[in-house]
Amino acid sequence: MSSEIYKDCCTFVGMDTRQKVLVIIVVLFVLVFGLYFFTDWFSKVTGYLGGEDEKEALAICLDERGVEFFYSIDCAECERQAAEFGEAMELIYQTDCGDELENCSNLREVPAWYIDNEFIYGFIGFEELKGLSGCE
């Protein structure tokens, strides 16, 4: 008796193969989009954004606070700093100081960050930059 109840309630009774496939596709579609919208909502509620979104958020904050990045094309540490941000580096105000720092006579070396009316020299890690700029 109990196996008959299970058979009637939990199987695709009376459906042909096309209908079964259609039902499975619809269920999968609902599950995938439900998961997508849940993770989007969860990210907004918790404030946790990973990867490029976190880098972009910091870059936007730095730009809003008037932080400036000084670099030279020949500078390996400058390239390392730019790699830290990836594409989000384009959102930060930057000044190319030239090969011999001819465009930045007030600087002693690059890379340099101008944060809160103060120059900070050398490579700065992501977390340290958050703290120095107040973009936490």
CATH architecture of the largest domain: 3-Layer(aba) Sandwich
- The end-to-end distance, rounded to whole angstroms, is 63 Å
The arrangement of helices and strands along the chain is: HHHEHEEEH
State the helical fraction: 40-55%
Essential attributes:
2 domains, alpha+beta, Glutaredoxin, four-stranded mixed β-sheet, 136 residues
Question: How would you characterize this protein structure?
Answer:
The protein has 136 residues and is α+β, with helices and mostly antiparallel strands. The chain folds into two domains: 2-46; 52-133, Glutaredoxin, CATH 3.40.30.10. Helix content is 51%, strand content 12%. The protein contains five helices and four strands; from the N terminus they run αααβαβββα. The chain has a four-stranded mixed beta sheet, with no helix packed on it. Strand 3 (112-115) and strand 4 form a beta hairpin. The longest helix is centred in the first third of the chain and has 30 residues, at 17-46. The protein is elongated, with a radius of gyration of 27 Å. The mean pLDDT is 86.
